[in-house]
Amino acid sequence: MGLVGLCSAVILLSLVALCSAAGSDAPRGVAVGFVFDPKAKCEPLCKHGGVCIRNNTCFCSKGYEGETCQYANCYPKCKNGGTCLRPGKCRCPPAYGGRYCHKVTCEDGCWNGGECNAVNGVAKCICPSSWTGSKCQDAICPQGCRNGGMCVAPGICSCPEGWLGGACHTAVCTKSCLNGGKCISPDKCRCRRPFSGPLCEERKKSH
Hints:
The protein is an all-beta fold. The protein has one helix and 22 strands. It is rod-shaped.
């Protein structure tokens, strides 16, 4: 048979797909015979390097499938609703990341020992007991921080000038209150009778 005859003849080919290991997401298969027709036409055309082997029948290159090889394959398959963009590349929905969308991801991460988990499909930081906030960025002071104090670490308040104590509850008077007077706010004394004055230094005269 001449060269032209060989080119126009129907050529028998065989495909071999590797059998995957048990439990794998990889494709399974055995040797399959098919007929390749060099005059075959496929409409629409085969995509992603696929070959038209018979009329409207495509043989897809590795990593693609579908009637026209239009779909990419990802192995392992994209998880949590991810979409396979090209072989081995997934586009992940919000809250998920990783090569196969198998990891829950929180934007900007979780601070202070928080863990990122998916709650009803939404990524959320689960904070340890002493922290709160969307990223576990806010410390918790069970005692509260009074008088304008700020909780800067678990159980620790940063107090404004003029206040001290674990909850910023103790006023500071730069000059001590006299005669049993009590400092009730920065530099302000509450005096006992019969004393008065800024520092309770004056004794009221009796009539």
